[in-house]
Write a structure and sequence with these properties.
The complex is a heterodimer of chains A (225) and B (638).
Chain A (H helix, E strand, L loop, with lengths): L1 E12 L2 E13 L4 E5 L6 H9 L6 E6 L2 E2 L5 H11 E4 L11 H12 L6 H8 L14 H13 L5 E5 L7 H16 L3 E5 L3 H4 L4 E6 L2 E7 L6
Parallel strand pairs in A: 3-8, 3-9, 6-7, 7-8
Antiparallel strand pairs in A: 1-2, 1-4, 4-5, 9-10
Helix pairs in contact in A: 3-5, 4-5
Chain B lengths: L1 H10 L1 H40 L4 E5 L10 E7 L2 E6 L5 H11 L2 E6 L1 H4 L10 H44 L4 H42 L9 H37 L12 H12 L1 H35 L7 E5 L3 H14 L4 E13 L11 E8 L5 H5 E4 L3 E4 L7 E7 L2 E7 L8 H4 L5 E4 L11 E6 L4 H9 L5 E5 H44 L1 H9 L4 H41 L8 H28 L2 H6 L4
Parallel strand pairs in B: 7-12
Antiparallel strand pairs in B: 1-3, 1-4, 2-3, 5-13, 5-14, 6-7, 6-10, 6-13, 8-9, 9-11, 10-11
Helix pairs in contact in B: 2-5, 2-6, 5-7, 5-14, 6-7, 6-14, 8-16, 9-14, 9-16, 9-17, 14-17, 16-17
Classes of the chains: A alpha/beta (225), B alpha+beta (638).
The structure holds adenosine-5'-diphosphate (ADP) and magnesium ion.
C-alpha cells in the first residue's frame, strides 16, 4: 500500500546541514498498525510529514496506492491528501473558530462529499455531548478525539498521527491508543509516531529511527492477538 | 549587542528597511508640517510688524511712570498715545485692565494683527483656525503613523520569532531579550527621526524657495529649537511605546485565553457555501486583526474623498475667482495724449496681427439701489473697454475694491444686481464672499466692462490696453514715442505670470496633499493587511493540510476582501456624509460654489480599496503558498 524508496530530506540550520531523513526505505501493507519510535530529533516527524505530502522530499519516491506523491504538484497533493490521508498533529491543530462538529465535518465539506459517517464517529469517539463546543472549551483528550474524528471523516485509506498522545496524561493517552487499535481492528491502516515504548507496543509493527535512518523494523506479534 | 542588532538587520533586511522607512516617512511628515507652519507664522509675524508694529496695545492715557509698572517691557509714544509691549503677551487683556484701573484710559486699541498670530486676539482669528486645521491633520498623520509603525514592527517581530526562540533557548533571559529589542527600537527610531528631519529640512527649503519665487514674497526659514526638541522627544517616545505594545499585548493574551474557557458556543448561522462560512467565521474570530485593516481602510477612504473635495474646491476657486487680464500692457501718456495715441494706433494697425490696441474710458456707474442694499459703494470708477468679444471674461467679471465679485451666468452666485452704465444696464450676480488668500489678486483691477461701441458710453481717454506677444514691448513703445511723450507703462504680463505661478502653486500644493494622503492611506492599508495575513499563516497551513485548494483560498480571499471593504465603506460613508455636510456649510461661508458631493469620490475610493485589499491579500497568499505546510503550521505567532 505504501512504498517508500531511498527517501532523503535535509534541512539547513544556519551553516549546518541536518539530514532529517536519510535513505529511508519502507513497505507498509494495508491494515497494518505501525508505530515509529526513536529519540527526539531523529527525524520521525519529518518522515511522517513526507508521507503525508505536507513537506517535499529532496529525493526518493513515496508511492501510495500506485501514486508517486513526490511527483504531484501542490494542488494535486492537496486533493490527493483530502481523499486518501488523515493526519493528526501532536497539538491537535483544530480551527479555533469552528465547533467540534464543524471541525470534524470540514474535510468532507471541502471535498464536497456527502457523508453519513459523522454520527458513528462522534459516538465512537465519545464526544457526542461536546459537538457544539469550541476547541478552546475542551480538554486536551477531547481535542485530540476531535482531531481524530476530522482525520477519519473522509474515510481515508491511511491515518498518520504525529505523537498524538504526546500532550496527554497517561490515562487519556491509553484511551486514544485504544481508539487507534479499535479502528485498526476494523481494517484501517495507521501509522503513528511516538516516543512512548509502552504505547508503541500496542502496534503490530514497530519501526525505530535514529539520526534519520531506519535502524530497526520488527513485527509485534503480541499485538496481533 | 550592537553586532547582534546589525546581524538581525541583515537577516530581516526587507522588513527592517520598511520599518526604518516607515519611521522616516512619519517623522518627515510631522516635521514638514510643523516647519512649514513656523515659516509661514514667522512670515505673517514679520508682515504684521511691518504693517502695524510689534506693540501689544495702544492706549490714550494719562498714566505717568509706566516704567514702574514692572510687567511692561517696552513703551513708545506715538502722538498722544502710548504703545505698550508687555513681558508676557498672553496676559495682554488682563494687564491692560489692571493698568486702566490705575489710570484713566481711552481709546484702547489692541494690535489685533499681531496678537492674532499668537492666537490671543479677541477678534477674527484666522491663525487659530489654521492651527486647528493643522492639529487635525497632524492627529490624522499621527494615527496613521502609529498604525503603520506598529504593524510593520509586528511583522518584523513575527519574522524574528524563530530567532527569538533560538536566543531564548541558548539562555537569553526575557529581560535581556526585551532590553535587546528596546535597544534596537531606540537605534531605529533615532536614526529614522534624524533622517526624517534632514529630509524634511531639505524639502522645506526647496518649498520655501518655490513659494517665494512664485508668490513674490519673502518667507524665510524659521527654526524653533525648543519646539523642535519637544517634537524630537515626542516622536522618539511615541515610537518606543508603539514598539512595546506587542509585548504588553503578549502578556494579556494568556488572560484572554482564560476568559475564552468560559465562553460557551453559540450556534453559528448556517451557510450553504463552506467558503463563505469559513470567511465569515474567520472574520468573527480574528476581529482584532481585521479591525486594523478596517480602520486603515476607513482612514484611506475618508481622507482620499475629503482631500479630493479640497482639490475640487481649489480648482473651482481658480476657475471662478481668478480672472486673468487679457491684455499684456497698460499704457498711459499724460501730455499730448491724442498725438501719442494716434502714433500708437497707426503703429499697431500696420502690424495688426502682432499688436492690438483697445481704447478705454473711465466713467461713473450707478448700482441699482433696489437690489443692492449692502453697505458697498454705489459710485465706482469703471473702465470701459472696447471689444466685447475679446474681453468677454472681463466684461462679465466685475471686481470692486470692497472685495466683491460679480459675474454673469453663475447660477450659484445668489444675489442679483444690475449695474447701470449710463443708459446701459448690465445684469450681474454678486458673490457673497471672496475666498481666503485671493483678496489681493481680485482687487487689482477696479471695474472692468467690455462694450462693443465705446463711444456710446464715454469718451475714450487716458489709458490704452494693449495685447502683444512682443517681449520687449515697453522698449519698443518707448523708442517709438521717443522722448517727446511721457509714457507710463504697466506690464500686465508680469502680473499674469504671478497669477499663473500662484495657480500653479495652489495646484501643486493641492495635488501633493492628495498624493501624500493617498500614500499614507495606501501604506497604512498595506501594512495592516500584510500583518493580518501573516497572522493567518498557521490557519492557512491547517486548512491546506485538511484539503482547502488554491481555488478555495482565492474565493475565500475574495469573499473576505468584499466583506472588509463593505464594512469599512459603511463606516466611511457615515463619516463622509458628516464631513460633507460640515464642509459644505463652512465652504459656503467662504465662497459661493455649488454643493459639493462626496459620494462620487467615496465610491471611487471604496472601489480602489477593494481592489487594493484583494491584490495585497492575493500577493501575501502567493508568498505564503510558497512555504511548505509544515513550516506554516509550526510557525507560531506572537
Ligand atoms: N523546519 C525545519 N528546519 C530546520 N530543521 C528542521 C526542521 N524540521 C526538523 N528539523 C531538524 O530535522 C531533524 C529531525 O526533526 P524531527 O523530524 O522533528 O525529529 P523528531 O520528530 O524525531 O523529534 C532535527 O534535527 C530537527 O532539528
Ligand atoms: Mg517530532
Amino acid at each position: 500500500m505504501i512504498k517508500v524508496k531511498k527517501l532523503f530530506k535535509t534541512y539547513k540550520q544556519g551553516v549546518d546541514i541536518v539530514v532529517a531523513v536519510n535513505n529511508a526505505c519502507l513497505n507498509i501493507k494495508k491494515g497494518e498498525f505501525v508505530a515509529i519510535v526513536g529519540p527526539s530529533g531523529s527525524g520521525k516527524s519529518t518522515l511522517l510529514h513526507l508521507l503525508a505530502g505536507l513537506d517535499k522530499a529532496d529525493s526518493g519516491e513515496i508511492i501510495i496506492n500506485n501514486t508517486d506523491i513526490t511527483k504531484l504538484n501542490n494542488e494535486e497533493m492537496i486533493i490527493f491528501r483530502r481523499e486518501n490521508i488523515g493526519f493528526i498533529f501532536q497539538f491537535y491543530n483544530l480551527l479555533p473558530m469552528l465547533s467540534v462538529k464543524e471541525n470534524i465535518l470540514l474535510p468532507a465539506l471541502l471535498s464536497g462529499k456527502k457523508t453519513n459517517a459523522y454520527e458513528k464517529i462522534i459516538n465512537d469517539l465519545n464526544i457526542k455531548d461536546k459537538e457544539n463546543y469550541l476547541p478552546n472549551d475542551l480538554s486536551g483528550g477531547q481535542q485530540q478525539r476531535t482531531a481524530i474524528g476530522r482525520a477519519l471523516i473522509n474515510n481515508p485509506k491511511i491515518i498518520l498521527a504525529d505523537e498524538p498522545t504526546g500532550n496527554l496524561d497517561s490515562i487519556n493517552a491509553k484511551n486514544i491508543m485504544k481508539l487507534f487499535k479499535h479502528y485498526n481492528n476494523l481494517g484501517q491502516t495507521i501509522i503513528i509516531v511516538t516516543h512512548d515504548l509502552r504505547l508503541a507496543k500496542m502496534a503490530t509493527r514497530i519501526i525505530t529511527v535514529k539520526d534519520g535512518k531506519i535502524v530497526k523494523d520488527v513485527k509485534n506479534v503480541k499485538a496481533h492477538n | 549587542m550592537l553586532k547582534l542588532i546589525i546581524r538581525n538587520f541583515y537577516e530581516n533586511k526587507k522588513t527592517s528597511i520598511v520599518f526604518l522607512l516607515s519611521i522616516i516617512f512619519s517623522s518627515m511628515l510631522i516635521f514638514l508640517i510643523t516647519l512649514l507652519f513656523s515659516a509661514v507664522h514667522k512670515y505673517l509675524l514679520n508682515e504684521a510688524i511691518k504693517n502695524t508694529g510689534d506693540y501689544h496695545v495702544k492706549i490714550k492715557t494719562d498714566l505717568k511712570n509706566y516704567e514702574n509698572f514692572s510687567v511692561i517691557k517696552n513703551i513708545k509714544w506715538q502722538d498722544d498715545k502710548v504703545l505698550i509691549t508687555y513681558d508676557n503677551i498672553y496676559d495682554v487683556y488682563k494687564l491692560t485692565d489692571k493698568l486702566c484701573k490705575k489710570a484713566k484710559c481711552a481709546e484702547i486699541e489692541y494690535n489685533d494683527a499681531y496678537l492674532s498670530l499668537y492666537g490671543i486676539s479677541k477678534n477674527e482669528n484666522l491663525l487659530n483656525t489654521l492651527k486647528y486645521l493643522i492639529i487635525i491633520v497632524l492627529a490624522i498623520i499621527l494615527i496613521c503613523m502609529v498604525f503603520i509603525i506598529y504593524n510593520v514592527y509586528k511583522i518584523l517581530l513575527i519574522n524574528k520569532y524563530k530567532q527569538i526562540g533560538l536566543l531564548q533557548s541558548i539562555g537569553m533571559t526575557l529581560k535581556e531579550l526585551r532590553f535587546m529589542l528596546l535597544f534596537e527600537a531606540i537605534i531605529f527610531s533615532l536614526l529614522g527621526i534624524v533622517v526624517g528631519f534632514i529630509i524634511s529640512l531639505l524639502a522645506i527649503l526647496v518649498l520655501i524657495t518655490f513659494i517665494n519665487n512664485s508668490f513674490k514674497i519673502d518667507i524665510s526659514f524659521a527654526l524653533n529649537i525648543k519646539f523642535l526638541f519637544y517634537a524630537f522627544v515626542f516622536l522618539f517616545l511615541l515610537i518606543l511605546i508603539i514598539c512595546f505594545i506587542p509585548f504588553f499585548k503578549a502578556k494579556k493574551i494568556s488572560n484572554l485565553k482564560l476568559l475564552n474557557m468560559n465562553y460557551t458556543y453559540k450556534k453559528n448561522k448556517s451557510f450553504k457555501n463552506i467558503i463563505i462560512f469559513l470567511s465569515y467565521l474567520n472574520y468573527k474570530r480574528s476581529k482584532s486583526h481585521y479591525k486594523s485593516v478596517i480602520i486603515s481602510l476607513v482612514i484611506f477612504i475618508v481622507l482620499s474623498s475629503s482631500f479630493n473635495m479640497f482639490l475640487k474646491y481649489g480648482e473651482e476657486v481658480i476657475n471662478n475667482y481668478v480672472s486673468m487680464p487679457s491684455y499684456d500692457a497698460e499704457i498711459t501718456v499724460l501730455e499730448n495724449t491724442d498725438e501719442a495715441y494716434k502714433l500708437l494706433d497707426s503703429f499697431a494697425s500696420k502690424n495688426s496681427s502682432k499688436y492690438k490696441i483697445y481704447e478705454t474710458c473711465k466713467t461713473k456707474i450707478n448700482i441699482n439701489r433696489e437690489n443692492y442694499v449692502d453697505k458697498g459703494p454705489n459710485n465706482l470708477n469703471l473702465y470701459i473697454i472696447e471689444g466685447n468679444n475679446y474681453f468677454i471674461n472681463e466684461a462679465n467679471t466685475v471686481i470692486t475694491k470692497d472685495n466683491r465679485i460679480y459675474k454673469e451666468n453663475k447660477s450659484y452666485f445668489k444675489k442679483e444686481i444690475s449695474l447701470k452704465v449710463n443708459n446701459k444696464t448690465l445684469s450681474l450676480k454678486e458673490s457673497k464672499n471672496i475666498p481666503f488668500g485671493f483678496e489681493n489678486i481680485l482687487t487689482k483691477d477696479n471695474l472692468l466692462i467690455g462694450i462693443n461701441n465705446i463711444n456710446d458710453i464715454c469718451t475714450p481717454n487716458l489709458t490704452l490696453f494693449m495685447k502683444s506677444d512682443e517681449v520687449n514691448l515697453e522698449k519698443k513703445l518707448k523708442s517709438l514715442l521717443k522722448e517727446d511723450f511721457d509714457l507710463y507703462y504697466i506690464n500686465a504680463k508680469e502680473g499674469k505670470k504671478i497669477i499663473n505661478n500662484i495657480i500653479l502653486s495652489v495646484k501643486v500644493f493641492l495635488y501633493s496633499i492628495l498624493v501624500l494622503t493617498f500614500l499614507i492611506g495606501v501604506s497604512t492599508i498595506i501594512s495592516s493587511a500584510y500583518l493580518s495575513m501573516m497572522y493567518r499563516k498557521k490557519e492557512f497551513g491547517l486548512l491546506k493540510s485538511i484539503g482547502l485548494t488554491t481555488k478555495d483560498f482565492k474565493d475565500m480571499i475574495t469573499v473576505e476582501s468584499l466583506y472588509i471593504t463593505g464594512k469599512a465603506s459603511l463606516y466611511s460613508l457615515l463619516l463622509v456624509l458628516g464631513i460633507n455636510v460640515i464642509t459644505n456649510s463652512v465652504i459656503n461661508e467662504v465662497i459661493d460654489l455649488e454643493h459639493f458631493s462626496l459620494i462620487k469620490p467615496f465610491l471611487c475610493t471604496s472601489l480602489i480599496s477593494l481592489i487594493m485589499i484583494r491584490i495585497i491579500m492575493r500577493m501575501c497568499y502567493k508568498r505564503i503558498e510558497k512555504t511548505s505546510i509544515i513550516n506554516l503550521i509550526y510557525n507560531d505567532n506572537i
